[in-house]
Amino acid sequence: MRFIQIFSWMAAVILTAAGSAFAQSALAESRSALEKWVETRQLISKSRSDWQVDKETIEQTTQLFDRELKAIEEQMAKLSTNSTQVEKERAEAEAQKLASNQTIEKARQFASEFEAKIKKGVPPLPVPLQDILKPLLNRIPSDPNTKMTAAERMQVIVAILNELDKFNNSISVFNEKRKNPKGEDVSVETVYVGLGAAYFVNEGGDFAGLGSPGTGGWEWTSSPELAAAVREVIRIYRNERPAKFIPLPAKIR
Questions:
Q1: Which pTM value belongs to this model?
Q2: For residues 190 and 171, what is the distance between their CA atoms, to the nearest angstrom?
Q3: Separation CA 28–CA 33 (nearest Å)
Q4: What is the DSSP code (8-state) at residue 170?
Q5: CB atoms < 10 A from the CB of 156, how many?
Q6: 18-32, 139-153, 178-192: which is most confident
Q7: Where does the pLDDT of residue 74 fall: very low under 50, low under 70, confident under 90, or very high at 90 and above?
Q8: How far apart are CA 131 and CA 116, in angstroms?
Q9: Angstrom distance (rounded) from CA 158 to CA 141
Q10: Pairing mode, if any, of strands 185-193 and 171-179?
Q11: What letter would DSSP give residue 225?
């Protein structure tokens, strides 16, 4: 009976020890599993945190690239626009240059034709007027391939026309030589009334007459009876007499 009691006690002790060992093993496994779980959670949290940082970096980089791309596109658009504007301006400049060259060529042709007319029209002009025009006439080029520009040639033509107009719209008095009926050269004063008529008289008043333009130059006719009237016109011209009407004959062609 006592043996049975001892056996029972020993069995209880063995079972208790076995249960304690099992419990410790389970606890160790649970602790290890918990540590693994905590480690895993920390790893997940760190990965999530790192991804958030990387995500923000990627988004900022993407925005930067978008701005740079937009700036490049704007520059390309401006370049295209500028290129189009440059082509347009070049085309306009070439058109203006062509029109200018055509205008210059027309002006050169006009100058050549008008210079020829001026040269042809010089001989019939009064000698005093020819003397006035001589410096300008000398500037008319004789070479058709002259280096003078069309503008320079036109300036000469305009200056000649101005002198012609000035002479034609005024009364002028010049000292000249005129042949008398004996064929002698006599000093006279000649009154030119524009380019339409002229009257002369010598100092002695015994030689006078009138002139008018002809095809080969001015034609002069002796008329001694005009001496007093012409002398009076000259005095009025010089303000030596008050202005008044002086009748003089004129040839109408």
A1: 0.61
A2: 10
A3: 9
A4: S
A5: 21
A6: 178-192
A7: confident
A8: 19
A9: 15
A10: antiparallel
A11: G
